[in-house]
TrEMBL record:
SUPFAM superfamilies: Voltage-gated potassium channels (SSF81324). It holds the Pfam family Ion_trans. Coiled coil: none annotated. Residues 128-381 form the Ion transport domain. This is Ion transport domain-containing protein. GO terms for molecular function: monoatomic ion channel activity. The chain crosses the membrane at residues 224-245, 296-317. It is found in: Membrane. Keywords: Ion channel, Ion transport, Membrane, Transmembrane, Transmembrane helix, Transport.
């Protein structure tokens, strides 16, 4: 009887232990993970088993937990763990713990960081690209400032044929260029707040956006920051401002040479800054031009822009060639002062009077085309600029169209020559 009583006590104790363990397991399942251990005696032996139970979608209770398939749970754990390991590996390879999120999670962050594929930013980048192209077309307008014109000092009967700079054209060109440069400053500011796709995450399909402002600034400064800043420096505006506010405006040659050097130096970064804009537009929207007609107009615009630049350089060099002819004629007189070749004198003297009478007559005979069309001086490729009176024209539209036509014609000839050579 005592043995039977002991067996009953052992069985009741075992049942109570199983009930307590099931209650503990139900309470632990609410937190997402539980551990279950059950012991049973059979044939005098003990058996222990353990398992991890993960709750998904509010699955609570022992009955639903028993329906979960262990294979699916194990696969999910392995997938989540491998993703964490990949993220850790990318952080170790980059050498810095960059804050990175996916595109759909960027709006949930507290930082004011822009998505590179945002529609508003794409439209702004397209506007920035168009403004860069227009600014490239504005810079050659400084070359049309110098022209041959006549001026008359107070108290003088004769007029002086000299080379001066059109102040109205110089001021308007400087103002328009300044407005476009200010607009591009917004592009520079946006670059410090625009996320970029981590290079290490592009291998795994959908890339992660780096939203760390320090990493964004480092990346931009290493790539295009210097070129962007140098391209918007108001160096031509400073040269024009110094020339216009000088009392003696005879520094035409110095101003012309400075403008030529500065514009050529800034043309390189102003062209370089177009590359990241066009590349970013192609990467975000797929194509720059949405239609075939827009694409054809885009490339035609570049051809016209190249012709405009070539024509402006040709005009400036035509003025330089006219100056050479005047200089050679001036050297024939021992006391000739070449400073009177440039407009801007405010006082009259004997040298000025001699320049406006005898020397001007010699310059007209040696440098101006005759009535039958012959050129006493060899102007070379700039002869059409002298014979058509483009160098002395006040009509800016006529001058611009004539130089554009010259650029178009000679670009076609140059292209045919290169094609024949190749």
């Amino acid at each position: 009887c005592s043995a039977v009583a002991g067996i009953r006590r052992d069985s009741s104790t075992a049942r109570q232990e199983e009930i307590c363990k099931l209650r503990l397991a139900d309470d632990a399942s609410a937190s997402g993970m539980s551990y279950e251990a059950s012991m049973g005696g059979g044939g005098g032996g003990e058996r222990r088993r353990s398992a991890f139970h993960i709750g998904y979608g509010g699955v609570v209770g022992a009955s639903r937990r028993r329906l979960a398939q262990p294979e699916l749970l194990a696969r999910d754990v392995i997938t989540h763990g491998s993703a964490q390991l990949r993220t850790l590996g990318r952080s170790i390879r980059t050498g810095a713990a960059m804050a990175a999120v996916f595109q759909e999670d960027l709006k949930n962050t507290s930082q004011k960081i822009f998505d590179p594929q945002d529609r508003i930013l794409v439209r702004l980048n397209r506007s920035f690209l168009i403004s860069c192209i227009i600014s490239i077309a504005i810079d050659p307008m400084f070359f049309y400032g110098p022209r041959v014109r006549e001026e008359q000092l107070p108290g003088e009967k004769n007029t002086n044929l000299c080379i001066g700079i059109d102040p109205g054209l110089a001021i308007s060109t400087a103002v328009v260029r300044t407005l476009f440069d200010i607009f591009f400053l917004a592009r520079i500011a946006l670059q410090f707040r625009t996320a970029f796709i981590a290079p290490s995450s592009r291998v795994f399909g959908r890339g992660e956006l780096v939203i760390d402002t320090v990493e964004i600034a480092k990346r931009y400064c290493r790539r295009f920051f210097i070129a962007d800043v140098f391209s918007v420096l108001p160096l031509p505006q400073i040269v024009i401002w110094k020339f216009l506010y000088r009392e003696d405006k005879t520094a035409v040659l110095e101003t012309k040479d400075r403008l030529l050097f500065i514009i050529i130096a800034q043309y390189v970064p102003r062209l370089v800054r177009i590359y990241p804009l066009s590349t970013e537009l192609k990467r975000t929207s797929g194509v720059f031009a949405e239609t075939a007609l827009a694409g054809a107009a885009y490339y035609l615009l570049w051809y016209m822009l190249a012709s405009h630049i070539v024509g402006a350089f040709w005009y400036l060099l035509s003025i330089e060639r006219v100056t050479d002819c005047w200089r050679f004629s001036c050297n024939e007189f021992p006391g000739c002062n070449q400073i009177y070749m440039y407009c801007g004198k405010t006082e009259s003297n004997e040298e000025y009077t001699e320049w406006t009478t005898v020397i001007r007559q010699v310059i007209t005979e040696n440098c101006q085309p005759t009535d039958d069309g012959e050129m006493p001086f060899d102007y070379g490729m700039y002869s059409s600029a002298v014979t058509s009176a483009v160098t002395t024209s006040k009509d800016m539209t006529t001058k611009l169209l004539f130089c554009l036509w010259w650029g178009l014609a000679n670009l076609s000839t140059l292209g045919q020559g290169l094609k024949t050579t190749i």
